[in-house]
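Design a sequence for this backbone.
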């Protein structure tokens, strides 16, 4: 079953749209498969009904292939998380999700978007740099790493016109 879903997600054409609370289980599954500390269904369900949380999903045959969500506070927003299923990475889906999300945030009156990224997360850093984010700070020793010193979190920002 897992192999079937993986093949399906790798092949079909993704559809991007705004997310709703109904996406919580799919987001939680992808988040848990992606990050060391996964967020549960109920954490996502709570986030997705917050009025100031903006979220988009990419689906293939109704399965979640990627998501992005951020929280707006006045004219600023912080990207809380973005992930794409492993079988679809490196094919532009992260960029499509980020572009759509940034356009929506701009439409909501957001003038600056911030986020944190691990200094060693090359794909994410490339994605953000191509999207016009630049470093405005860093949190030293923020992300734990097995058997070695923790890595820094880079604080990135992009101002929207
Ligand atoms: C970060 C992530 C969302 C990017 O999604 P994606 O669909 O692979 O992104 P894209 O295909 O649009 O690629 C974005 C850029 O990263 C580059 N990239 C992709 N895989 C890469 C890799 N393994 N190493 C270096 N760069 C890579 C691409 O070449 C592209 O740059 P380009 O436009 O200059 O060619 C995805 O890798 C992911 O889910 N990672 C795990 C979760 C994560 O780290 N989230 C970010 C937390 S801050």
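Sequence:
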């Amino acid at each position: 079953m897992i192999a079937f879903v993986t093949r399906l997600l790798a092949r079909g054409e993704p559809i991007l749209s705004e997310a709703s609370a109904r996406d919580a289980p799919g987001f939680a599954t992808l988040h848990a498969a992606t990050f060391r500390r996964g967020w549960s269904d109920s954490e996502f369900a709570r986030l997705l009904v917050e009025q100031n949380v903006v979220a988009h999903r990419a689906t293939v045959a109704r399965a979640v292939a990627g998501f992005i969500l951020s929280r707006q506070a006045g004219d600023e927003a912080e990207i809380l998380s973005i992930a794409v299923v492993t079988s679809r990475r490196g094919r532009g889906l992260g960029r499509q999700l980020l572009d759509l999300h940034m356009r929506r945030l701009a439409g909501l009156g957001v003038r600056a978007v911030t986020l944190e990224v691990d200094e060693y997360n090359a794909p994410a850093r490339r994605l953000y740099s191509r999207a016009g984010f630049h470093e405005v700070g860093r949190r030293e020793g923020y992300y734990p790493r097995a058997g070695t010193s923790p890595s820094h979190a880079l604080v990135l920002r992009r101002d929207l016109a």
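Helices lie at 2-11, 24-34, 41-49, 93-107, 122-130.
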